[in-house]
Design goal:
Layout lengths: L9 H15 L9 H18 L2 E9 L2 H8 L1 H18 L5 E6 L2 E9 L5 H11 L4 E3 L2 E3 L3 E8 L6 H17 L5 E3 L2 H17 L8 E10 L5 E12 L3 E3 L1 H10 L3 H22 L5 E5 L2 H5 L3 H12 L6 E6 H6 L2 H12 L3 E7 L6 H6 L4 E4 L1 H4 L6 H16 L3 E5 L4 H9 L4 E3 L7 E2 H12 L6
Length: about 450
Amino acid sequence: MLVVTALDITERDEAERKLLHQANYDHLTNLPNRYYMQSYIGSAFARAKRGRSKVSLLFMDLNNFKDINDTLGHGIGDELLKQVAERIRSLLRAVDTAARLGGDEFLVLIEGLVKQEQAEVVIQKIIDSFKSPFYVESHEIYTSASIGISTFPDDGNSVELLMQYADTAMYNAKRDSSRNYCFFSHELREYIDQQLAVKKHLIHAVSKNELSVYYQPKINTRNERIIGAEALIRWHNHELGNIPPDIFIPVAEKYGLIEEIGNWVLETACLEAGRWHEISASPLHVAVNISPRQFRSTAFLDTVRTALTASGLSADSLEIEITENLLIQDTSEPMEILNTLHKMNVTLTLDDFGTGYSSLSYLKQFPIQVLKIDRSFINDMMENQFNMSLVDAIIALAQNLGLQLVAEGVETKAQLEYLRWKNVNAIQGFLFSPPVPAEEFRALIRQQSSSPERS
């Protein structure tokens, strides 16, 4: 007797096919996902090696996607991502591959290249395509992309490393507003190595007492006396030596170290300023720069209160300096924090005014009390009529809004006299003093306290 059993495995095969697709493809755009591309890129490198050709990885990031999401909603944002994916896909050859890595980040894999520069043809097509708007429901949306490129085998043969290189090049393109794309280079490789070396030591900088705070005097333009100081962080590492803030602060931001470091600066500056009142005949304030990430921390207000309590410093002797970018990125979060600080009598200063996305709306909306004129405008304003006009405009704006003014980077008597004539309240700069260690600043206070005030 023969028994035959027949099974219909069609449904099982279909289920397995769906699971496989879900594991390897992005559900929103139907492009390959990061998981799939990790192995696919390795295969592309192997093909290029056999064919003695090159492969370029294009990392793409939409420049204003967060603003679109926040303004129009996530539904519109999702539909925009789908249209972006389709537009990219329509520009590629059959041998090239587009993928969505997550969020608003895309990857394009270009195969069969003879030389790296051939990738620029595809890059330019993508950039040009973004000049046309996207239509989502009733909205006409304009956006652009920043693109970073790494190439196999020119930049290396590791999938992970080349993806990192393309990512780094993309952020370099995003930092430079004059261009939309950037090829990875030897200089960028050195930059990565430098960042990793800095990160390695910066992690332990606070615990090893390698950080210090310097203080640059703020001078009353009327009588040329010290009214306070800006606290500026400095770092000396036994292996790396003196590392400038413009090198290690971006690293601290990138790797999540800025909150610990920023809190340490705030606490240290408040403790130091508490000592000034013991040796100064007049009240002095200390200004502390706060990074956007530190500012948005849920513990920030508690950190300010703790620093004031521990130091015995009155709130009206503390000045918090923030940048324009913090206000522009998201107006819902800073408002409550700034209002709380204002109610505490902490002075709020907008730093580097005029160098970012200056807007009258947030000057009226937020409880800002002081504007700082950036040193880039002050530097050559006596020789550059355009910069002088900008300085005049900022001064007029601040005075019309009832805001105090501080000019930084003042280095000549002519600059001081002009700013005094324009009724700018205070200045800081090398004309009076560079940033100095705490002991030297105390010496300046004692010297001032022993000399009569000019009328």
